[in-house]
Design goal:
It contains four helices and twelve strands. It has a single domain, classed as Alpha-Beta Complex (Nucleoside Triphosphate Pyrophosphohydrolase). The chain is an alpha+beta fold and 210 residues long. Strands 1, 2, 3, 4, 5, 6, 7, 8 and 9 form a nine-stranded mixed sheet that branches. The protein has a three-stranded antiparallel sheet with strand order 10-11-12. The chain is 20% helix and 34% strand. Strand 10 and strand 11 form a beta hairpin.
Protein backbone atom coordinates (compact mmCIF):
# COMPACT_ATOMS: atom_id res chain seq x y z
CA UNK A 1 0.00 0.00 0.00
CA UNK A 2 1.30 3.45 -0.87
CA UNK A 3 2.06 5.65 2.10
CA UNK A 4 0.07 8.85 2.30
CA UNK A 5 2.30 11.92 2.35
CA UNK A 6 1.32 14.27 5.20
CA UNK A 7 -0.03 17.66 4.22
CA UNK A 8 2.76 20.26 4.46
CA UNK A 9 2.74 22.20 7.75
CA UNK A 10 0.19 19.84 9.29
CA UNK A 11 0.71 18.13 12.65
CA UNK A 12 1.35 14.82 10.86
CA UNK A 13 4.06 16.51 8.79
CA UNK A 14 5.57 18.06 11.93
CA UNK A 15 5.65 14.68 13.69
CA UNK A 16 7.41 13.08 10.72
CA UNK A 17 9.97 15.86 10.51
CA UNK A 18 10.65 15.77 14.25
CA UNK A 19 11.18 12.00 14.14
CA UNK A 20 13.59 12.39 11.21
CA UNK A 21 15.51 15.43 12.49
CA UNK A 22 19.31 15.20 12.37
CA UNK A 23 20.97 13.59 15.34
CA UNK A 24 22.21 16.18 17.80
CA UNK A 25 25.98 16.37 18.22
CA UNK A 26 28.13 17.83 20.99
CA UNK A 27 29.23 20.57 18.61
CA UNK A 28 25.67 21.73 17.93
CA UNK A 29 25.41 25.11 19.53
CA UNK A 30 22.34 27.33 19.27
CA UNK A 31 21.97 30.78 20.74
CA UNK A 32 22.53 34.50 20.36
CA UNK A 33 26.30 33.96 20.16
CA UNK A 34 25.88 32.43 16.69
CA UNK A 35 24.97 35.87 15.36
CA UNK A 36 27.30 37.80 17.69
CA UNK A 37 30.60 35.92 17.96
CA UNK A 38 32.99 37.52 20.42
CA UNK A 39 30.48 40.15 21.58
CA UNK A 40 31.40 41.54 25.05
CA UNK A 41 27.81 40.99 26.23
CA UNK A 42 28.44 37.24 26.05
CA UNK A 43 31.43 37.32 28.41
CA UNK A 44 29.89 36.68 31.82
CA UNK A 45 31.26 35.68 35.19
CA UNK A 46 28.06 34.08 36.48
CA UNK A 47 26.88 30.63 35.28
CA UNK A 48 23.93 30.40 32.91
CA UNK A 49 20.49 30.22 34.51
CA UNK A 50 18.22 27.38 33.33
CA UNK A 51 14.85 28.16 31.80
CA UNK A 52 12.27 26.40 29.65
CA UNK A 53 9.68 27.53 27.12
CA UNK A 54 6.81 25.71 25.47
CA UNK A 55 6.60 25.86 21.67
CA UNK A 56 2.83 25.28 21.39
CA UNK A 57 1.87 24.01 17.91
CA UNK A 58 -1.91 24.11 17.54
CA UNK A 59 -3.54 21.26 15.60
CA UNK A 60 -6.15 22.73 13.24
CA UNK A 61 -6.56 19.57 11.14
CA UNK A 62 -4.66 21.23 8.31
CA UNK A 63 -2.20 24.08 8.52
CA UNK A 64 -0.91 24.19 12.08
CA UNK A 65 -0.29 27.43 13.97
CA UNK A 66 2.12 28.51 16.70
CA UNK A 67 0.65 30.04 19.85
CA UNK A 68 2.60 33.07 21.06
CA UNK A 69 2.15 35.69 23.75
CA UNK A 70 2.83 39.39 24.10
CA UNK A 71 4.46 40.07 27.43
CA UNK A 72 2.80 42.62 29.68
CA UNK A 73 3.94 46.20 29.21
CA UNK A 74 4.26 46.52 32.99
CA UNK A 75 6.99 43.85 33.30
CA UNK A 76 10.47 45.02 34.27
CA UNK A 77 12.29 42.86 31.70
CA UNK A 78 11.41 42.39 28.00
CA UNK A 79 8.11 44.21 28.45
CA UNK A 80 5.79 44.14 25.43
CA UNK A 81 7.88 41.60 23.54
CA UNK A 82 6.47 38.56 21.77
CA UNK A 83 7.43 35.35 23.57
CA UNK A 84 6.70 31.69 24.11
CA UNK A 85 5.09 30.72 27.42
CA UNK A 86 7.95 29.92 29.76
CA UNK A 87 10.35 31.01 32.44
CA UNK A 88 12.98 29.95 34.95
CA UNK A 89 13.11 26.27 35.91
CA UNK A 90 12.23 26.07 39.61
CA UNK A 91 13.82 23.57 42.01
CA UNK A 92 10.40 21.95 42.38
CA UNK A 93 10.09 21.29 38.62
CA UNK A 94 10.79 17.66 37.82
CA UNK A 95 12.15 18.50 34.36
CA UNK A 96 12.31 21.27 31.75
CA UNK A 97 9.12 19.80 30.29
CA UNK A 98 7.38 20.15 33.64
CA UNK A 99 8.58 23.75 33.93
CA UNK A 100 7.33 24.64 30.45
CA UNK A 101 3.91 23.11 31.13
CA UNK A 102 3.66 24.85 34.50
CA UNK A 103 4.55 28.23 33.00
CA UNK A 104 2.03 27.78 30.14
CA UNK A 105 -0.72 27.19 32.69
CA UNK A 106 0.37 30.06 34.95
CA UNK A 107 0.74 32.58 32.11
CA UNK A 108 -2.16 31.78 29.78
CA UNK A 109 -4.22 29.07 31.49
CA UNK A 110 -3.36 26.41 28.91
CA UNK A 111 -3.91 23.11 30.71
CA UNK A 112 -1.73 20.04 30.40
CA UNK A 113 -4.70 17.97 29.26
CA UNK A 114 -4.63 19.93 25.97
CA UNK A 115 -0.87 19.50 25.38
CA UNK A 116 1.05 16.51 24.05
CA UNK A 117 4.79 16.96 24.54
CA UNK A 118 6.62 15.31 21.64
CA UNK A 119 10.17 16.26 22.60
CA UNK A 120 12.72 19.02 22.97
CA UNK A 121 14.71 21.11 20.57
CA UNK A 122 18.38 21.89 21.31
CA UNK A 123 19.00 24.31 24.16
CA UNK A 124 19.20 27.96 23.17
CA UNK A 125 21.67 30.21 25.00
CA UNK A 126 20.38 33.78 25.31
CA UNK A 127 22.53 36.86 25.59
CA UNK A 128 20.62 37.69 28.79
CA UNK A 129 22.34 34.76 30.54
CA UNK A 130 19.75 31.99 30.26
CA UNK A 131 20.09 28.47 28.88
CA UNK A 132 16.61 27.85 27.49
CA UNK A 133 15.17 24.38 26.88
CA UNK A 134 12.54 24.67 24.09
CA UNK A 135 9.83 22.03 24.65
CA UNK A 136 7.83 21.13 21.55
CA UNK A 137 4.17 20.45 22.27
CA UNK A 138 1.05 19.78 20.20
CA UNK A 139 -2.02 21.63 21.43
CA UNK A 140 -5.44 20.11 20.83
CA UNK A 141 -8.38 22.48 20.36
CA UNK A 142 -10.84 23.49 21.53
CA UNK A 143 -9.24 25.24 24.47
CA UNK A 144 -9.93 28.41 26.40
CA UNK A 145 -7.14 30.65 27.59
CA UNK A 146 -7.11 32.67 30.80
CA UNK A 147 -4.35 35.28 30.62
CA UNK A 148 -2.42 36.29 33.71
CA UNK A 149 -2.67 40.07 33.32
CA UNK A 150 0.49 40.60 35.39
CA UNK A 151 2.54 38.69 32.82
CA UNK A 152 0.70 38.60 29.49
CA UNK A 153 -1.22 41.24 27.56
CA UNK A 154 -2.21 39.08 24.61
CA UNK A 155 -2.07 35.56 23.14
CA UNK A 156 -2.27 35.01 19.39
CA UNK A 157 -1.58 32.40 16.72
CA UNK A 158 0.75 32.60 13.72
CA UNK A 159 0.67 30.06 10.87
CA UNK A 160 3.51 27.54 11.11
CA UNK A 161 3.81 27.91 7.32
CA UNK A 162 4.71 31.60 7.77
CA UNK A 163 7.26 31.02 10.52
CA UNK A 164 8.98 28.18 8.66
CA UNK A 165 9.45 30.27 5.50
CA UNK A 166 13.05 31.61 5.55
CA UNK A 167 11.92 34.54 3.41
CA UNK A 168 10.26 35.84 6.59
CA UNK A 169 13.47 35.57 8.65
CA UNK A 170 15.09 39.01 8.56
CA UNK A 171 18.55 39.65 9.99
CA UNK A 172 18.37 42.87 11.99
CA UNK A 173 20.41 44.68 14.63
CA UNK A 174 20.26 47.37 17.27
CA UNK A 175 22.85 49.33 19.22
CA UNK A 176 23.33 47.94 22.72
CA UNK A 177 25.71 49.85 25.02
CA UNK A 178 27.34 51.45 21.96
CA UNK A 179 27.86 48.06 20.27
CA UNK A 180 25.81 46.43 17.49
CA UNK A 181 23.78 43.35 18.49
CA UNK A 182 22.39 41.08 15.74
CA UNK A 183 19.21 38.99 15.85
CA UNK A 184 16.37 37.63 13.73
CA UNK A 185 13.19 39.61 13.16
CA UNK A 186 9.95 38.06 11.84
CA UNK A 187 7.26 40.75 11.50
CA UNK A 188 3.74 39.33 11.23
CA UNK A 189 1.08 41.98 10.66
CA UNK A 190 1.35 44.40 13.54
CA UNK A 191 3.24 41.87 15.67
CA UNK A 192 7.04 41.92 15.83
CA UNK A 193 8.60 38.55 16.58
CA UNK A 194 12.28 39.10 17.27
CA UNK A 195 15.21 38.38 19.55
CA UNK A 196 15.34 35.10 21.46
CA UNK A 197 11.85 34.02 20.38
CA UNK A 198 12.76 34.47 16.72
CA UNK A 199 16.08 32.72 17.38
CA UNK A 200 14.28 29.65 18.76
CA UNK A 201 11.90 29.70 15.78
CA UNK A 202 14.94 29.84 13.50
CA UNK A 203 16.35 26.79 15.32
CA UNK A 204 13.08 24.94 14.69
CA UNK A 205 13.35 25.84 11.01
CA UNK A 206 16.97 24.74 10.73
CA UNK A 207 16.37 21.43 12.49
CA UNK A 208 13.08 20.42 10.85
CA UNK A 209 12.44 22.44 7.70
CA UNK A 210 15.80 23.75 6.46
Amino acid sequence: MDQVTPTPFSIADLRARFAAQPQAHAGDDYGDHRFNPGHPRLHRAKPLRDAAVLIPIVDHQGDATVLLTKRAETLRNHSGQVAFPGGTIDPTDASPEAAALREAFEEIGLGRDHIEVIGRMPDYVAGSGYRIAPVLGIVRPPFQLTLNAEEVDLAFEVPLRFLMDPANHIRDSRIWNDLEWFFYDMPYGDRRIWGVTAGIIRTLYERLYG
